[in-house]
Each structure stands twice: as C-alpha cells, then as structure tokens.
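Sample 3 of the quickstart, ligand magnesium ion:
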Amino acid sequence: MIELKGIVQTYPGTSGPVQALRGVDLHIRPGEVFGIIGRSGAGKSSLVRVINLLNRPTAGSVVVGGRDLTALGAEDLRVARRDIGIIFQHFNLLSSRTVYDNVALPLEIAGLAANDIKARVEPLLDLVGLSSLKDRYPAQISGGQKQRVGIARALANRPKVLLSDEATSALDPETTRSILGLLRQINQEFGLTVVLITHQMQVIKQVADRVAVIDAGRIVESGPVLDVFTRPQHATTRSLIDEIVPQQLPPSVLARVRALQAKAPDNPGQLWRLAFSGEGADQSLLSDVIRRFDLDLSIVHGQVDEIQGQPFGMLAVFAHASPAQLAGAVAFWRAAGVQVEEVANPQEAANVQ
Ligand SMILES: Nc1ncnc2c1ncn2[C@@H]1O[C@H](COP(=O)(O)OP(=O)(O)O)[C@@H](O)[C@H]1O
Ligand SMILES: [Mg+2]
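Result:
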C-alpha cells in the first residue's frame, strides 16, 4: 500500500544542514496497522510528512496505492492526497468552526454540495460517537473528543490510508485506549491502512500489527510486534520496550538472588532471564522443567502480558543445580522456543549497575 524507497530528508539548519531521514525503506501492507516508534527527534514527523508529501523528500520515492506521488503534478497530487487522511497530536481543529463544520471542511474544499456533505458527515459523527456534540466548538469538548473530530475529519474523503502523528500523545491513558480502540475498529470495518507514529510502546502494544523502530533518521529494526517485543535486536528498541518488558533486572532482584546464593555458598546456582511468547508461554514452561530435571526453581522477577490475544513476557528464574541439570533445563526451554539468557553472575551484574 505504501512503499518508501531510499527516503532522505535534509533540512537547511542554522548551523549546517540537518539530516532528518538518512535512507528509509519501508513497505506497509494494505489493511495493516503499522507502527513507527522512535524517540523525540528521531525523524518520525519528517517521515509521516513525506508519506503524504507535505514534505517533498530530498531523495527517494513515495508510492501510495501504486502511484508514485513524487512524480505527480500539483493538481494530481491534490487529488491523490484525498486517499491519505492524517490526524495530529494537537488535533489542529479550527476553533471558529463547530464539530460538524470541522468534519465538513475537507468536503467543502473538495467541492461537494451541502446535501452530499451532510450525508457523509452525519454517519462519521455517529461512527466516532459525537452526534450529540455536533454543534459544539472545539473549546467546549475534551481532548479525546477533539481527536474524535480529527478522526472523523480525516475520514471525510474516504481515504485508503490514515496517518497518525502522535495522535494520542496529549491524551491520558484511558482516553488513549479508547482512541486506539476506535482506530482499530475503523481499520477493521473499512480495511483502512493505518500508519501510527508514536514514542510510546504502549501504543504499539495495544494496536499495531507490525512495527518499525526509527533512530537518528534510520529504520534500525522492524517486524511483527510480538517478535520485536520478545526478541529486540537494537539497543534503542530494547530501551523503548523496557517500560513494558523489563530488559534489565532491577538491583533489588539481584540482591534477592545474592541472598539465595548465600544460603548455599558451595553451589552459587544460576540466574536466567527467560523471554517467551505465544506457544512458548505455556505454563508448563516451569513445571515441566522442575519435574524433569528435579530443579529447585525460584521465580525472582517477571511480567506476563498479551498482544492481540497472544501471551508474551519475561521471567527471571534462579536455581541451585548441577551443570547437567542446568544444561538440560536450558535445552528444554530453547526447544520450546523460549529465549534463554544466562545472567552471568548476579554479584558482578549488581556491581555494574
Ligand atoms: N523544518 C525543519 N527545519 C530544520 N530542522 C528540522 C525541521 N523539522 C525537523 N527538523 C529536525 O529534524 C530532526 C527530526 O525531526 P522530526 O522529524 O520532527 O522528529 P520526531 O517527530 O521524531 O521528533 C530533528 O533533529 C529536528 O530538529
Ligand atoms: Mg514528531
């Protein structure tokens, strides 16, 4: 649906050119919710503005729905842009227009008659749950309601793609959930392709099918959300995921392990960090290992969560055991698709932190 190739975006800066995008390739499939996550300044807004050619890239091509936007003339581009809706962090509503008139605006610009506008706007207001507030002004509604207006407005031209640039970043967690739920509903009902730009992994976790991580103008990692959450490869990805699945064991956990070790100074035991998803998340992950290898296993830390009905998580487990028992347990977990990381020596790990 969206094919970006070799996108470079350079801005003239006061102290020399700023390279906001340094060669981005992305393929976004029709009907998916594709998340793009990165820290502030990573190039997210530059990227989203390139997709609808609000910014013309310094180099590279932008193909949306089979059309190369960079090759279109001004008039063709204006028409092509109707297929791409966009919503923003600060909603960008016109304060002098009512809810209804904000949603109607793109249709007025497209030259529809008042009757046709009404026939489009009313079902959209219904869809976003704002029919009863249609005569209010932006100042008279909440942030979540403003974003619902933004969504209805973005859908007015019946786009095939919806771009969202930090659309929930100004909202509280509960409102964020309801807006993301609405985006998912729209995605499913209309088969709309959604590109979701965010700095929050919670947003990716709640609604994205696939995710790309952007760092300093480059895509450093991408894949299905569950894979990226359970097998993050890049340091930026790991630090962004940390809020959902702790990547480092906290010092308090390591202190607890040291206390366990002190009980058996001759056999310091082994601490593992296990990351699992889907099938591997089966409960018998622990009970089978305990039975088969006669292990005295302690769970010292953990987190189990869900993405689109698929369990995933992290457990830190500790065992006093013989090398044969330890090797058996690790082989069993790996065969079950669990990522096993041996935390070398809690004493040293604690000193490093
Ligand atoms: N119009 C501009 N002129 C100059 N530099 C810009 C402009 N827009 C963005 N930048 C710079 O480009 C980089 C990426 O910015 P941006 O795409 O807004 O990142 P993000 O949305 O991830 O925070 C930043 O260093 C930013 O300062
Ligand atoms: Mg931005």
